[in-house]
Amino acid sequence: VQLQASGGGLVQAGGSLRLSCAASGTIFSINDMGWYRQAPGKQRELVARISSDGSTNYADSMKGRFTISRDNAKKTVYLQMNSLKPEDTAVYYCNANIVSYIVRNYWGQGTLVTVSS
Question: What is the chain's percent helix, strand, coil content, to nearest 5?
Fold first, then answer.
């Protein structure tokens, strides 16, 4: 099982980016999926999570600017990021609790988002 993240890049403050993360391999079902981020010199923090039935929760600083969604048929989770700020600069990691032959959490490789002022 693998998670492949994409969509990061360089954007100006106030701009938007959409991240994607696709799961592949032998997968029977996917429970929660989410996005975390880690800025230089800081700990990894939650951005947003979405359950298998579509319930979402966000970190306070992302509410109203970021939207998490998922396509269960494509085994993909998305993060739409609007009104980006320089402090959003970080490596963004996707995470998923996947039911394969075992049940465990998987992490994607990370995608860098850089917001210039």
Answer: 5, 60, 35
Region 76-105: what's the mean pLDDT? Answer: 97
Question: Mind listing the pLDDT tens digit for each residue in 11-41?
Answer: 999 999 999 999 999 999 999 999 999 999 9
Q: Distance between CA atoms of 107 and 115, rounded to whole angstroms?
A: 23
Chain mean position to CA 8 = 11
- Tell how far CA 12 is from the center of its chain: 20
pLDDT value, residue 24:
98
DSSP E strands in 41-82: the ranges are 45-50, 56-58, 66-71, 76-81
